[in-house]
Amino acid sequence: MTTNKKKLTTSWGAPVGDNQNSMTAGQRGPTLIQDVYLLEKLAHFNRERIPERVVHAKGAGAHGYFEVTNDVTKYTKAKFLSEIGKRTPVFIRFSTVAGEAGSADTVRDPRGFAVKFYTEDGNYDLVGNNTPIFFIRDAIKFPDFIHSQKRDPKTHLKNPTAVWDFWSLSPESLHQVTILMSDRGIPATFRHMHGFGSHTFKWVNAEGKGVWVKYHFKTEQGIKNLAPDIAAKIAGENPDYHTEDLFNAIEKGDYPAWKLFVQIMPLEDANTYRWDPFDVTKVWSQKDYPLIEVGRMVLNRNPENYFAEVEQAAFSPGQMVPGIEPSPDKMLQGRLFAYSDAARYRVGPNHNLLPINSPKVEANNYQRDGAMRFDKNGGGSVYYEPNSFDGPTESKENKTTSYSVSGIADSVSYNHDDHYTQAGDLYRLISAEEQARLVENIVNSMKSVEKEEIKLRQIAHFYKADPEYGIRVAKGLGLPVQKKV
Ligand code: HDE
């Protein structure tokens, strides 16, 4: 009988004679250093882990496609959006934010919603969340914010005092805190939540005319959430519940899908709109800027290998394609730096050569060498520019649009400081039952805060958003209503 069974080899391809017994000096003698196969096996095992993502460490990924369903060419020249019916392969990674790589899926936390479009003009990454806004609006506050969400350096426990201390001293977080503490804070699965680009971006059309844009992925599965007691039970019984749900749904052909919409704002409106459109803690009213359909995303293929495709996936909001550009949002500006920097540390300087990260089109540039340069490294081709050897050159039509800036270089805040109206609007929008659950979730989270001063300060924020909101939280905590911060 012939067999196709492959021979076990070392990593350099030599057949292995024994994979059960290490080589010793005699039956009871010590292990021999000449058993290099054993040495290789143990040494490689020691190096199996790469640093987990400092945030969004726990996640699940899937492949699929994006299909254009509406003509948006008057707003953007992005080639992957150029024709109705056009399909572009995508890879998505969903995640929680604060927990470690092995932490439970069903916790109260925003969810990452990171999409990589493999377009003919290179990769476009839209690295968003399942919330349209964020807790802070300046990148300089991000490390402090995340510290408050992570483990206490002494106890190594999550620390509600730090969480509420930071939030109460950063009132721009109030709107996102209200979303987080609402029913949507614990999605039922990754499939039952919307996705958002959150920031404002710029779209530019073939004539070079720009507009401001916000992205909304609407789940076709409908929104479903988990009650906190059920979520806590699942967290204990099956911490990988969301990971498993996504994998199984795709495996059995129940492909999750989202419709992509955008809000479009004329550039000049940014000077007059009642909210600062670059402040990521605020939404644009859909009455002012209605949703415009763009396309549909379907996830229809599971990764073959988790580490290769999901753990090594590197997303960056800085990876844009012609027709899509950044806005001056101070959070987005910081993110343009942070993600590729994180990838160089976590995966390596040539992370973009890995199959999951590399574009489906040829990348032609003069970058050479670096750790783990495992492609042909440009071979013998010309390795500097400008050159007289017909090497790749810039294409002026792909320059980003110019715009004028003025002012004094300074560390300044946004002009708008109303952190209360939109949070209050959200409180008033949800049903009476959800309001009650929102207050209960907040009270449960705040009751172990150590300093009364922090609780009172936070109550004042809720009160300013809506007096009833503040009164109910104060009552739940057994504290007096604090009306002023
Ligand atoms: Fe992230 N974020 N972030 N973030 N973020 C990371 O990137 C960071 C922010 C988001 O599945 C890190 O490769 C800064 C907003 C997602 O691989 C890191 C700031 C939004 C993911 C990082 C923000 C996000 C990350 C961790 C403030 C939603 C997971 C390691 C300026 C719009 C992507 C890494 C994946 C991951 C930094 C704020 C979403 C450290 C500095 C706002 C979905 O680079």
UniProtKB/TrEMBL annotation:
Q: Where does the chain bind heme?
A: 339
Full protein name: Vegetative catalase
Residues of the region (Disordered) are 1-26
GO cellular component annotations, sorted alphabetically? cytoplasm
The record's comment on protein family reads: Belongs to the catalase family.
For this protein, what is the EC number?
A: 1.11.1.6
GO BP annotations, alphabetical order:
hydrogen peroxide catabolic process; response to hydrogen peroxide
What are the GO MF terms of this UniProt record? catalase activity; heme binding; metal ion binding
**Domain Catalase core stretches:** 9-393
Q: Where is the active site?
A: 56, 129
**Which species is this UniProt entry from?**
Bacillus methanolicus (strain MGA3 / ATCC 53907)
Q: What class of enzyme is it?
A: oxidoreductase
The organism's place on the tree of life at top rank: Bacteria
Q: Which UniProt keywords apply?
A: Heme, Hydrogen peroxide, Iron, Metal-binding, Oxidoreductase, Peroxidase
Q: Which cofactor does it need?
A: heme
Q: Which gene encodes it?
A: katA
Cited PROSITE patterns? CATALASE_2, CATALASE_3
Tell me which InterPro entries the record gives.
Catalase, Catalase_3, Catalase_AS, Catalase_clade1/3, Catalase_core, Catalase_immune_responsive, Catalase_sf
